[in-house]
Amino acid sequence: MSLIINNDDEDEFVEKQILNQLSQENYAPVRLRSFINHYGTVRPRISTINRLRNHFNKFFNTLNCLYIINVLFDRIPIIRCLKEYNLRKNLFADIMSGMTVAIMHIPQGMAYGMLTTLPPIHGLYVSFFPVLLYMIFGTCPHLSIGTIAVISLMTAQAISGTPLQSFNIINNQSYVASNIYDEIVINEKVGIATTLAFLVGLIQLILSFLRLGFLTVYLTEPFISGFTTGVAIHVFSAQLPFIFGIKSPRGIQGAFKLPRFYFKLIGSIIQNINWISTVIAFTSIIVLFTAKQLNDRYKSIIRVVIPSELILIIIGTLISHFTQIHTFHGVSVVGPIKQGLPSPTPPPLQQISYLIMPAATIAMVSLCISISMGKMFSRKHNYKVSSNQELLAYGISNVVSSFFQCYPSSGALTRSIVQEGSGCKTQLVGGFSCIVLGIVIVALTPLFYSLPMGCLAAIVIVNMKGLLFQIKDFFFYYRISFLECILWIVTFMTVILFEVDIGLYAGLCTSFLINTIRTQKPHFVVLGQIDDTEIYKNAKLFPVAHQYDNIKILRFDESLYACNSPFFKRKFYELIGIQLRQEPLISYKKQNLNKIENIKYNYVILDCSPFNFIDTVGVKLLIEIYNDLKKRNIQLYLSECRYGVRRTLELMNFYEKTAPNIIYITTHYAVMSIRTESDTNLPKVTIATQV
Amino acid sequence: MSLIINNDDEDEFVEKQILNQLSQENYAPVRLRSFINHYGTVRPRISTINRLRNHFNKFFNTLNCLYIINVLFDRIPIIRCLKEYNLRKNLFADIMSGMTVAIMHIPQGMAYGMLTTLPPIHGLYVSFFPVLLYMIFGTCPHLSIGTIAVISLMTAQAISGTPLQSFNIINNQSYVASNIYDEIVINEKVGIATTLAFLVGLIQLILSFLRLGFLTVYLTEPFISGFTTGVAIHVFSAQLPFIFGIKSPRGIQGAFKLPRFYFKLIGSIIQNINWISTVIAFTSIIVLFTAKQLNDRYKSIIRVVIPSELILIIIGTLISHFTQIHTFHGVSVVGPIKQGLPSPTPPPLQQISYLIMPAATIAMVSLCISISMGKMFSRKHNYKVSSNQELLAYGISNVVSSFFQCYPSSGALTRSIVQEGSGCKTQLVGGFSCIVLGIVIVALTPLFYSLPMGCLAAIVIVNMKGLLFQIKDFFFYYRISFLECILWIVTFMTVILFEVDIGLYAGLCTSFLINTIRTQKPHFVVLGQIDDTEIYKNAKLFPVAHQYDNIKILRFDESLYACNSPFFKRKFYELIGIQLRQEPLISYKKQNLNKIENIKYNYVILDCSPFNFIDTVGVKLLIEIYNDLKKRNIQLYLSECRYGVRRTLELMNFYEKTAPNIIYITTHYAVMSIRTESDTNLPKVTIATQV
């Protein structure tokens, strides 16, 4: 095929020549059908049974010893890691990184542990057991598993949502000493938390076995940002009572939880504020904040992360211990902490019915936070993180840890960044961190007796800074993408005004709805030719683009399917200037349809390049429009249909119901071919009228 | 710009010339940026405030007398209809059509009325009042409003789901005569049904005022088909007890309703079957069925619709009356019917809390059935049906009718087709039909005393035929579109196995999910040039398409956004042959990334023509890939980006983060430009190495 376009001046001779050539060749490779006959091949369709058989064959072929060993290596990545471990290169870096992270684990573990309404020691357990297990099964060396604010808060909510059976026991007894009562309640709460961890792990394992790791793609960035920001505000609010040294308002349930909480809190602060607590907490916040700022600024010079949180805890404990502010000024302190690692006890699983929904929510949230972080690090350091293997690792971590009085764990952003920054090389970092933590849990917990709760609250609040500042994401999305902004704000507001889990589901539903809404009213534009190139562009954006007298070229910037086909129809007729009747009374005459409306063109080309798929409703609409336009003496052509669309058209017998040659390969070929056609047609008409 | 491509033989000289020309012009109109500078215009962005101001100005300008009259005419279409009524042309046709439809209304009204578990007369009321009101406010002359099986069944379900207060009254009294008891219960049921109609109308009016008529686009064809088929099976099942002359099994609630219903029903049939009833019902079904078949076959000859249902009712009543089968053989008959039109009574609105959800469901179902029919007729006869005006008409019909002991009404398919076929011209058809029905209600109801219930059940069943046969839609969708098939079967199965309303919501959720799933794993293909044209096609489908040594051209057949960006990334690297590392241990070296993988090309072009939009996640991914490829000495180019995509890229500072000239106008220009570039680059390299 020869194709010459001379664009500098309209050389009519040359153009005629091409068109004639095209017509001589019977438009061979110009129309889709002939084009495919000429160049194409038919894709062999494999029947479903054969496809299944292939899958099974593949599966059985792999059942040999080597393969199984390989799978085992894939499932337990630490084997490969140990096998290939380079002592000289990695050991020192890993030990240093492990120590740094362990030093962060101690205060954070206690602070977040407190957030769950359990004794702080359980936070330390969560900093120990899941880390150890993730080291064995995880694939991302930079991810620091353990306590995290969001999950701790959600655990607290799950615990408060479960009715305690010990209330009944206590009510039945005539008199129970206050400390015994407290112990019974705390034991039961620990039981609930471990059951929760067990369920969370179980759900993650099931997801992993079903290979449903891909589901995390639905947890999109605006959604995660809105969700975590909302949760951060909850976490922040939960710390305020500790900051002001008062008791947390209780029994707030249902809608508008947070506003009502603040209402009660302010009243409580005015009545019972403990000034010493407040001063300690605010001093701690300011100190931590400055330390972090300094750390960030002089990172390049000192090259070591200052363990500001640990220093704060040590100083706080010392001051508190020697001034005895607990006894004399009623400042609440951590109090007695159990010593030693817990012996394995199965989670009680009694109140499982109350915990399934919270567990599902926690599993999903922990999943999306951890995996999104894992992916971030893998992008940065160019290694592969497998969603399904990660799921397996989280699942095993949670299930096994639940036997050691742990509540649900997850990957933590702040610690992971420190772990990465302190030069971690392999998963073994987790092991070295555990050694330090083990020593603390076994030997050093009594030292924390006098640590003021305000210090722990300060640590949480300062760590929330990044998440709270995500509010600026809202303005980012507002500027760039209206629908993503809607998703952000809906998720954020439902998290704030209702429970965390309601926010999760509302956000998910919104993100599905948005995918539909986005395709509702796409651009529908009239195209024009740019100079004499084969490029056709939106005539509104490119004023140079010229339109032919008798050809209208349209492009609908979205796949045509059920939800936008009414819009397509309305807009299509609007653009080609045909008004669908308003008055049902005027009788319908076929002949003079277009005379009324003064339509001057006879051809409409629909550029189908934006059609990524078409459904049955869309095909029916195209057939309907084709036939309607035919009545009005207008010919509809399509161009640039891709394989998927063509296949649906074929299955729907589109060509039989319209015309076999309705599709052109490109818009430009369609225009050229139409121009030849009308050139050859027009003279005939004039002759006919002359006779 | 001059562009000459000679394709018959590879004339190198000519090709070089073009490429040189392009390079001389500094690729001016080839790259997007220069193209826009050369030809384009910047679309003026109107600020939100100005846009709102424009809207308000437009609104206030319209507040004049003429406009208000016009709006009134639009809202009450019958005024225009009467003004322009052509007595000679339309009157006779309208009267004949009105009579025909009225004759259908009588048996159907009673049969569907029976389906609601109310006395059959209420079905006749529904055939009268809403029809009258729709005549005034409706826009579709061919639509026959009134009783319809689906809505009647849903009304019955709403009634059975509402606890009756009269049970309490009766339980408190020591002894109540059976007929008084029945009357109290029926009165309360009527109250519930009218409250339901009132609520349905109210919801439709609210939707109309909020101009939410467009929401019906979400009720897509596969969904409606699956839903109505499922409901038809419910309706069919509800008739079976009448067919076999037994009492309907009661108290079946919850999951797997229909299977459990059939289980009980079969037991009941075996025990209590009334043979006379069964014979009457089956004879009626066969007679009706044959009559309809004959009618269809000889439609062209006799040109009148035989009122077979009315004839059946008359004959059935006569036989039943003279043989007294009710008294002697226990065949259940219609019994005493109130005479005369009801006086206006406000609906009781007492049990409104139980009825809001069913009312919302009924409002949506009635809406989607009626509007889809209206659209069908408007397409056929080329007039416009406005969703919002229709909603107003249905709303007013239901609200006002609810004062006259009517249950919710809707447009009926079978009657509408008869109305169209019998030559209806204008809305006035409704009025003529009402005259006939008025006479029947006022004077003739006592005549139906002896009508066997089996005859009415037969009428319902024969009318369900079309809906039940929609099951073949499933096979249609199975063949053509997997996802639409899934939607159909999910909707159908949930309707059958659970309640009708659960099915509705499950179907809606599925249809939203499907829109997301569809975009998950699109085709991602490598393109090749066809001969020497500017056409680039999937190299797998077109084996002729040839790929250049150092250029990879890719096309991702879907918009790139959060939910498919992980797939995009994985597949992208797979297609260009780069393996993302599995082992986290090997240290990352920038220099020899590609040497390991033997990558031979230096350019990747991503054809963006299928991108209908891109979101922030997608843009970030493109930036990430661009920078990653740059490290590997591969240059990424985009081509054919449309306005929406370009705008998001600009807002995200895409050009600053990658390269200002990353986008080419077309894939072909990109290829040409790259070939010139590499031609000019390569010699330099050789010289450098020679030195």
UniProtKB/TrEMBL annotation, chains A, B:
It is a multi-pass membrane protein. The chain crosses the membrane at residues 59-79, 91-115, 121-140, 190-210, 222-246, 266-289, 301-322, 352-371, 391-410, 430-462, 474-498. Its main location: membrane. Residues 541-674 form the STAS domain. It is found in: Membrane. GO terms for cellular component: membrane. GO terms for biological process: transmembrane transport. InterPro entries: SLC26A/SulP_dom (IPR011547), SLC26A/SulP_fam (IPR001902), STAS_dom (IPR002645), STAS_dom_sf (IPR036513). Keywords: Membrane, Transmembrane, Transmembrane helix. PANTHER family: SULFATE TRANSPORTER. This is STAS domain-containing protein. It comes from Adineta steineri.
